[in-house]
Amino acid sequence: MRKYDCIIVGGGLAALTCALELSLENKKVSLFEAHEYLGGRTSSWNEKGMYVESGFHRYIGYYSNMPKVLHKAGIDLNKMVTWEEQVEIMIPDQDESVVMGVAPFFGPLKLIRSILGNNPTLSTKDKTSLISFFIFGFKDYLLNPEKLDKVSIKQYADLYHVSDQAFNYLIIPLSSGILFLPPERYSAYVFFGLFAPGIPKFYKMRIGAFLGGMSEIMCNPIGERIKECGGEIFLNQPIDSLLLSEDQSEVHGVFNGAGERIEADYVVWATSVVAMKNVFRNHFAEATWFKEIEKLKMMHACTFQIELTEPVLPKDITTFGPNTCLGSFSEQSRSTFQGSKGRLSIILTPPEKFLDLSKEKTLEIVLEDLKRVKIHIGREQIIDYQKIDHPNDFYSLAPGINQHRPTQTTPIKNLYLAGDYTLQPYFATMEGAVTSGMNAAKLVEDGNRK
Ligand SMILES: Cc1cc2nc3c(=O)[nH]c(=O)nc-3n(C[C@H](O)[C@H](O)[C@H](O)COP(=O)(O)OP(=O)(O)OC[C@H]3O[C@@H](n4cnc5c(N)ncnc54)[C@H](O)[C@@H]3O)c2cc1C
To answer: In this structure, are residues 86 and 114 in contact, taking their beta carbons and an 8 Å threshold?
Structure first.
């Protein structure tokens, strides 16, 4: 029988952060990941002969906990990502695109040009129509969060008379392009909340694209650091249930898929929300606190990746295709997939439309929508392609859901939660996952000091 100070269930960023923080404090930790690779929703692996990723990711310059964890793991952020100072919005069925500066300090001219410059797609009137939307949105985020979480982005944009052009070509990319959902179904609270931490840190704003597969250049090195500090990592080891005291008030460990009992003083459950619910339901279905967690609805994500004979875009930058299935996409052959001659990575929207579609049918729809934004890919250019599904992996960002997110504590003694769905200010992002992992580690350390 094995015994640890803390068992951490999961191998995504929340779990890795928690395990790293605790092992640096000389705790005897053990991390159990269900898959054969680390990273969860920030991972890269070989899928039927094609090197793929969970979906293309961007590091946002204002993140503050994630760089701390990377530093502790010995990862140089500037070698892990390449910086983008602008993004592009490709307007379907027109020959136009909007280039937006996103780095006030690192690329001020690009930002000023995109705000003040004349653009045939977004007139000065369209841009002006956004001013009160953003000012009142950030004000409501700070002073009236509950009110803001009752409405969708679309309702909020209507309230402040955002023009159709500004809505279509700016608000849609910033909603469905970033977190998959169309503005009609996306809470205005989450929308403003995602950008709000960037305001006081505007000078740090820019976007980082990964310079390699996320498991290889980020998650595995964090795992190696955990092991150097004495932590243990088990891959391919799903945890099936908790080892609880008879009255279910205290956790003493877990059981793995083979039924092996593994004991620990603390357990941090750091999976996605759906995986947590599936296991916890077997133990706590009748408990009031768990019934509250059951109210936390979930949503899917779906990505599509095409290996090509040549690059299809002149630069590897974040690109949006509003009013198409191309929520956001990027050529990646000069950044994340440098071994590829051409590589397009796409986040599909709305995700539920694609979840049950075959990859062949999805390819047809994707190629049609790419044509609408003037990207023509012939079948002879396609070497391989894969659709990567994330069913129910996210907590829903719809209005009214945020209040049901649990904190990292549970009423069960020595059982803590981590994961991007748990309550922290950064929503369903890498920074959110890392923050939840730090919080859970702190709770374990505080518990130890008592
Ligand atoms: C397509 C896509 C694009 C994204 N883009 C961005 C972006 O640009 N910027 C950004 O900041 N964030 C982005 N995110 C969000 C970010 O990836 C997530 O918020 C973050 O990775 C979540 O980490 P986590 O540790 O909470 O959960 P996960 O990464 O889901 O980790 C949970 C882990 O638990 C494991 N597990 C599940 N059940 C068990 C079990 N029973 N036993 C053992 N292990 C188990 C899983 O295999 C998984 O590895 C994106 C996500 C996706 C899917």
So the answer is: yes
